[in-house]
Amino acid sequence: MAKMIKQRLLTTIEEIPASKLGEVLDFMEFLLEKERNKKKGELDIEPGKDPILEFIGGVSHGSLAKDIDSELYGEKA
User: Fold this and answer.
1) What is the tens place of the pLDDT at every residue in 22-31?
2) HSE of 44 in the Cβ direction (CA atoms, 13 Å)?
3) Position 75 confidence tier, pLDDT thresholds 50, 70, 90
4) I need a surface site. Which of 6, 16, 68, 76 has the fewest CB within 10 A?
5) Is residue 66 classed as helix, strand or coil in its secondary structure?
């Protein structure tokens, strides 16, 4: 089965316009990297490289959005 799929990939690559080959290669490399990370037991997301993940828990105050609607849209009618 895998041999047939590989053959279909090669056949399909021959039909892809040259301008799209880089995109195909990028996607294939992305899939390979994702598989390598899975085998190593790593997350797809690295907290040290994602500023949002670094910020999680940075604010412990619970009412940051209190009255946000009136601030954004004016007083309620």
Assistant:
1) 999 999 999 9
2) 5
3) confident
4) 76
5) coil
Cα R_g (the chain), whole angstroms: 23
CA distance 64 to 69: 12
- DSSP secondary structure letter of residue 49: G
Q: Two tokens at 39?
A: 């085998």
Rounded-to-integer distance, Cα 42 and Cα 31, Å: 14
**Banded pLDDT at 49 (limits 50, 70, 90):** confident
Q: Which of 35, 41, 13 is nearest to 25 (CA)?
A: 13
Tokens of 26: 């990028």
CA distance 27 to 69: 42
From CA 25, how far away is CA 31, in angstroms rounded? 10
Return the ∠ at Cα 29 (arms to 45 and 16), rounded to 5°.
135
